Amino acid sequence: MNCSEYENIKHFTYVEYCDYLQEKHGIGKYDYMTKSWNKNPKCTRTKEGLIAHHKYENCAIMLSKKEIAMLNPFEWQLAKNIVHCDYLEHLLLHVLICEYPSEEKNDFEAVSIGGIINFIVPELNDFYSGWITKQEWQKKCHELIKGNKDVYLTIIKRFKSSCKNNPFFSEDCLFKSFNEQYGLWSSKQNKSIYNDIKSL
After folding, report:
1. How far apart are CA 51 and CA 174, in angstroms?
2. With 0-12 CB in 10 A as exposed, 13-18 as middle and 19+ as buried, what is 9?
3. What secondary structure letter does DSSP report for 39?
4. Alpha carbon distance 166, 154 (integer Å)
5. CB-side exposure of 100: number of CA atoms within 13 Å?
6. Which superkingdom heads the taxonomic lineage of this protein's source (predicted)?
7. 53: which strand partners?
8. Which distant-in-sequence residues (6+ apart) come within 8 Å of 181 by Cβ?
9. Rg of the chain over CA atoms, in angstroms?
10. How far is CA 88 from CA 17, 50, 116, 193, in A?
11. Which of 1, 26, 50, 161 is such that its CA lies 20 to 30 A from the CA of 83?
12. Angle between helices 149-162 and 191-198 (to 10 degrees)
């Protein structure tokens, strides 16, 4: 997603954006999980640079995890309820969930924000600071967004503003490195992008 596209879709609700992305990238042919609740490898589209997002993540957390998915309707794993997206589109989907929470979400689950601050933002901080993955499946995903750091910062600015009253949000949660825990990168190497985020 580039800046021009973001400007065209920035007023969409979460549901509208899901529909938009399914029209843009198409609906996959395969369910995310098999009937035995195992991830279906046929669902992946990382060769196109796209990852899979569960449309019902506005109702429940971590639907890609078997033990959690089994606590929720299997219908949520069907192909029609999977949104394929690039990394920046995925970030925006999660921000929109924070902005448009479902009235039918599971009790005692803080949907979406955990995915943003624990996974998506830390990885993108590393990527836009120069970290290069050795995972073949991930290379195409990163290639698709490599020239769009400005979009990343625009979405982060929006997140800081629209979610500042979320009890799980603090600005410090944006200053993380995903790969530091594996000894592959460090927060020191992300200093420049942390400064960019602070200035937003």
Report:
1. 22
2. middle
3. B
4. 19
5. 15
6. Bacteria
7. 83
8. none
9. 16
10. 13, 10, 11, 16
11. 161
12. 50
Cβ neighbors of 170 (< 8 A, separation 6 or more) are none
The amino acid that residue 106 corresponds to is N
Give the whole-angstrom CA distance, residue 115 versus residue 95.
Answer: 10
Q: What are phi and psi of 133, to 5 degrees?
A: -70, 150
Place of tokens 């200035």: 199
Blockwise average pLDDT, block size 10, the chain, 200 residues = 97 98 95 97 96 96 96 98 98 96 88 95 98 96 97 98 93 97 97 98
What is the C-alpha separation between 3 and 169, in angstroms, rounded? 25
Residue in the block written with tokens 């967004």: 145
